[in-house]
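An instance as discussed:

___
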Amino acid sequence: MTAIALRGDTPAQRYRRVPWSPAAWRQALYLLGGTPVLLAAPVVVTVPALKGHRWPYSLLALAVVFLAVPLLTRIQRHRLRATAGVVIPPQPVIPGRLIPQGILTAARSRATWRQVGYHLLAGPALAVTAILVFGMWLAGVLYTLVYAYAWTRPAGSLLQRGQADPPPWPFLHVLHIPIDVYLTVGGITLLVAAPWLTAAVGALDALVSSALLGPSRAEELQHRVEHLTQTRAGVVDAADAERRRLERNLHDGTQQRLVSLAMQLGMARANPAGAAQAHQVIAEAHEEAKAAIAELRNLIRGLHPPVLEDRGLDAALSGVTARMPIPVRLTVDVPRRPPPTIEAVAYFVVSEGLTNITKHAHATQAEVFVQRAGDRLHIIVSDDGVGGAVPERGTGLAGLAKRAESVDGTFEIVSPPGGPTLLTVDLPCAR
């Protein structure tokens, strides 16, 4: 859960704040489950001192934690992503991390010391807070149900006497309210407050982890500039490759048909013939003209299909899958249309992905799944082919990756030898 989720006013988010909500208990268990990892670094550092070892052992423990920082950070990033849905961008990898030069480079990096501070200071503090929060849940349950199990205690015990005796404090004697009533009210109060405190601790965990384990603002900007530079170069290359493809298609296809049509008409004009021969020449010219028109129509459809602009992704992709020579199962769940640029990228990603399947995968069937979730558009193209597809082999996958990156999207392909192949693209679609 992120800090923004604390301000949620939707019914689903309010439901997470009630004591009987499974989501609230699940979040508390997630926080408690992360404490062993959060306490790993301080335990490694303090155990030698607690056992009475001399200071060299403590220094050795600190060195072990320093070298293990990338591993601990990966574990924390995975924990937050799996339990809270918080994605923390990875830090740049330092080459030769275990050799002297790499260790020196890491020691000079501010990012390394932010991570060390998290694992030795912030992480343990969050772990203690999570334990206290979970203890609050347990105390709330025990105090709320005190009347349900007090009768099982031995006679004369505090809980047994608390069902009838008032508290030992003189100023509460006048109310004649038994101790167990106060405990029950206190337990209910704890249960009401526990979900809110759990959400606050979860948001604090996400905030602190993002600040210390992720890149700083300056590093994000630097990475952004580098990414934009690479993306711009990739877009220029992709546009140039697309231009050459169009030139080649026009030269080898439509232009040749138009030249053949002109030659036929020119020969018919230069050599007048009878009606039958003229009819044959006209028929051949008509066929050539229809073929040229069909090629131009396909070329225009490849540039930007009109149905995409008029009716959206569902209709456009239905047309693409209908023309495929193998069965394609299409699922489109896009309640709101993305921006036109994102629609175009999504269309060409699916179209080119299916084209690659028919050309290279030797598949018998394929599946396309397109879904909009919030401000992201998720695209999955899979097949049961032979696999082994990699962008470096020039199968058009590199161009798809550049298309996705040009709009700040992500591209991933998993294609082990023997298949199946799974192509996943994630595009931003916030207006």
Summary: DSSP finds 17 helices and five strands in the chain.
